[in-house]
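Researcher: Re-running this chain for the archive, since the previous output was lost when a drive failed. Same request as before.
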Amino acid sequence: MALVTALKETGRSILESEGREALTALRVAESPGVAISSLYEYFPTMDSLIGAVFDDYRRESRDALLAAIAALPASATLFDGILLTLTVGLGVHRKKMLLDPACNARSIHYDELVRLDLVKAEDIWHPGATPTRRARFESEIRVRDAKKARFMALHTLLALPRAMVLDLLARMIHALLTTASR
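Model: Regenerated C-alpha cells:
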C-alpha cells in the first residue's frame, strides 16, 4: 500500500508541477526509489497511473464537498448546496483537464457512456453529494423518490462537461459572427 501511495503521490506531483509530458516511468520510479518493474506491476501504463491519480483527486474533492455542504450556514438553501456542488464539479473537470487533457477527454467519454446508461453508474460510483444534499435540505426537496432524485442529479452533473464545451463553442461562433472583419 505504501509503495502504491508513494507512486501515485509522485505521479500527481509531477503532473501538477511539470505537466503530462514530464510524467515518465523513469521519473516516477526515481522518486520513491523503486525499480521500474515494480511501477509496472501496479501501473502497467502511465494512463493507469493517471487514472489512479484522477480517482484520488475525485475522492478528495468529494470528501471536501461533503464537508463544505455540512459547513454551510443554517440559512443556506438547496440552491446554495447545488451551486456549491457545481462549483466543485467544475473545479474537478478543470483540474483533470490541466493535469492531462487526453485522459480527461477519455474520462468525459466514459461519463457519456454512463449518461447514456451503457455503463451503470451505481455499480462504480460512490453516491457522493446527492444523499448529503438531500438530508441537509430535506424540507426544500419536493421529489420524494430518492432513486429519481439521484438519477436527475447524477445525469445533470454528467452533462456538465458537455455543457461547458457547448457554451465554449457557442461563444466562439458568436465571436466569429459578431466581430467585424478587417
